[in-house]
Structure formats: C-alpha cells, structure tokens
Amino acid sequence: MERLFVLCCVFGLSLSLPSNVFEFEQPQNGGNHWALLVAGSNGYFNYRHQADVCHAYQILHAHGIPDERIVVMMYDDIAENSENPVKGNLINHPDGPNVYEGIIKDYTGKEVNPETFLSVLKGEKDKVNGKVIDSGPNDHVFVNFVDHGAPGILGFGSKTLKAKKLMDAIMFMHDNKKYDKADKVKSEDVPLESLRRSLNLVSSKEEAVNIQQQIEQILKEREVVNKTMKQIIAMATDDHVLTTNVMETRHKISAWDCYEENDYALRKLYMFVNMCEMHVPREAINAAIEEVCNVGKVNIQ
C-alpha cells in the first residue's frame, strides 16, 4: 500500500525539532521511500524556505533514504548571497548546524517552477532533465513544499500553482497506482503538530520545556491574528451580524478586483474573500486595515 504524505508549509515557519520527529512507517512488500523537497521562493528575505528544505533533506538522510530517491528543488540563491554573513552556510534555527552542507540540488534557478514540480511529482521523465518521483505501487511518497500561499494557490517565486492542477497531479498518481492512501496536515497546523509530537521524543526536561514554550508562543501569535482580524472586519463592516458572518463562513472567490488588493494575514484571507463577496466596499476594507494595523494594537488579556 502506497502512501503520499503532503506537507505544505506555505508560511515557511522554522522549527528546532529532534530529527526523529518525522518517523517514517516502513513500506511493505519491498517498497521504498521517495521524497520531493521544494522551496518555491527566491530572494534572501525568504531565507527560511530554503533552510527548511535543506533541514528536511538532512532528516531524510539521517533516516537512510538515499539521494537517488530524494528530489530537491530550490532556487539556490541564499548560501552564497551577498547578504549571507556566513557564505556557504544555511541554518534553520539560531546557532544551528549548517543544513546546506552535502545537499544535492536537482533543480535550481528558473527550473524551480510549477510545471517542473508537477512533472517531477507525476514521474514524467520525458518532460524534465533530472530526477523524478519514479514511485511504484508499494512505495511511500513524502512531499515537503515550502513557500507562501493563499486560498487556492501556492507561491512559486513570480509564478503560482493553482490548487486544481495540484489535485489533478495527485489524481494522476492515484490512477496510475503511485499511491493508495493520502495523509494530510493543514499547513497552518504543521508547526503545532510537529511540536506536540516531538514532546514524546525528547530526552530531557529542558527540551520539553523549550518545546512547550514554542507551542505557547504559536498559540499566542494566533490569538493576536484572530483579534486583529476581528477588529479590521468590525471596523470595515460596522455591523455586528455581518462581522460574525464574515468570520464564520467561507465564500468562493469571484470578486477578484477587491480580493487581490487585500493580502494581509494570509491565514485569514478567506475573511477578506467573504467581505468582498458580501459587497463590503473595498475602500472601507483598506481603511480598516490601515487604521487597525498602523494605529491600533491588539492586547492579549
């Protein structure tokens, strides 16, 4: 039975976790592990995305997965970047090890794009000039995609990957017996799930305390986002009932002109979609964002 595990970290959160957090179930009937690691972004300001992919590569190697079954896609413009104080070095947490060391990069620069990603995932050897996920019916496939995103899209530098094309690729894999069971974790829950799982693997009280503090910090930040969004929506709509509807429902996007102007707080973008679909004036939305984000502060009681 094949498993496709898709881990889409669209916010690129870096975590300091034990390497055995990601324990892999061993394939049956002679199956193998395959992995596709993708950092879709470029630019030094997106340092964390490529650092996280390099970290994932090191974890896979620590579990004995060979390079011939690991495909790495990253722009590779960080390690030797003029802004990088330690050339040839990438870390994914403060004072951490160089996770860039020894990594084999299969696709770099402009090769990191939606089309190549989909071809590699589907195993289309004739459409790319490098390795692909050449998995079979007994193999396990792990996909780790790191970049920004929004409802229905994943970022790929200056390009985007639409959700439908990704789902079509997964269905192609299913129809061609490249996986039989899919596990998924919501991108917004990946950091918390990883930290909570790691609590069962730590070897000291100090490590447990550190991880618990990370969990509490994430929960605190989420509360700030929720309170900020509520303030923006309440100010923009000036209607208690409409505010509740905006926060508790999910509209499909059709008012693109309004929606595309308000890209604050990616996790809560559906609320901006709702306001646009409920015909809240875009001027009111923008004014509320400016008022709350630039003037007001959210206090956690």
Automatic annotation (TrEMBL):
Q: Which InterPro entries match?
A: Legum_prodom (IPR048501), Legumain_prodom_sf (IPR046427), Peptidase_C13 (IPR001096)
Instruction: Identify the keywords attached in UniProt to this record, alphabetized.
Output: Signal
Q: Which Pfam families match?
A: Peptidase_C13
The region annotated as signal peptide is: 1-16
UniProt xrefs under Gene3D superfamilies: 1.10.132.130, 3.40.50.1460
Which family would the database say this protein is a member of? Belongs to the peptidase C13 family.
Q: What is this protein called?
A: LGMN-like protein
Q: What is the scientific name of the source organism?
A: Mya arenaria
